[in-house]
Amino acid sequence: MDTPNVLLVVLDSVRAKNTSLHGHGNETTPFLESFADEAEVYEQARAPSIHSVSSHASIFTGHHVPEHNVTKHESELDPTSTIWHELATDHGYETGIFTPNVVVGVSSNLIDPFDTVDGPRQDPGHRYFEGGISPSDVEGHQTKREYLERCLDSTAPLKSIVNGLYFEYYDGGDADVDESATAYIDSFFEWTDARSGPWAACLNLMDAHYPYEPAAEFDRWGDDELQAVHDGLPAPPSREIATDGNWWKLRAIESLYDGCIRQVDAAMEHLVGELRERGALDDTLLVITSDHGEGFGERSLITPSVRIADHSWGVHEVQTHVPLVVRHPGGGDGTVEDRLASLTRFPDVVRSELAGERGSFAVDDHAVAMTYRLEQPERVLPSACPDRESYGGPWRAVYRQDGDRVRKDADHGTDARTEVIESAQVSSPRGDGDVEFLNEVYGDFQDAGVRGRSADDASLDDDVEQQLEELGYLR
Question: What's the CA gap between 215 and 103, in Å, rounded?
Answer without folding.
Answer: 24
